[in-house]
Amino acid sequence: MRSLRRFRNVPAAIILRMGHDIRMAFENGWIDSIRFSSLDETLTQLTNIQGSSERIRNTPLPRQYDYFPRLLVIFFCLLLPLGFVEGLGLATPIASTFVSFAFIVLDTIGRDIETPFANTVHDTPMTSLTRVIEIDLRQHLGELDIPAEVHPVAGFMY
Fold this sequence. Notes:
Low-confidence stretches: none
Distance between the termini: 23 Å
Order of helices and strands: HHHHH
Strand content: under 5%
Number of domains: 3
Mean pLDDT: 86
Number of helices: 5
Shape: elongated
Radius of gyration: 25 Å
């Protein structure tokens, strides 16, 4: 496992090593051609999924997608009391505060989910998901050195 750390893309290196091991198992007669074909197809699908996830993670969003929605929310929140004042009178500050808060929260949520693999509390808990897969695979292989499950930290799963 330490030899994988020299690769810039460790998941791709793991998949490459698995492909090499599958080919070696087929060449040595440990698996038949049907199993080889099935494992190769599964590995190809895994490679495609891993590549797609990397493209999602590494694709930058244009700054306009970050800047203009925030600007529109600010202008909306500033102009909102003017629309409420005639109908609500003295309740305008309270109503406009609640509505503005809702829009600001929605904008903040949008910013938080822009990067689903940044390993923050608002993201997909990739560390936990991959650890569960790793534990399952190691148990299926009959290994005894099983890593511990990932537990929430301060109520958040990473």
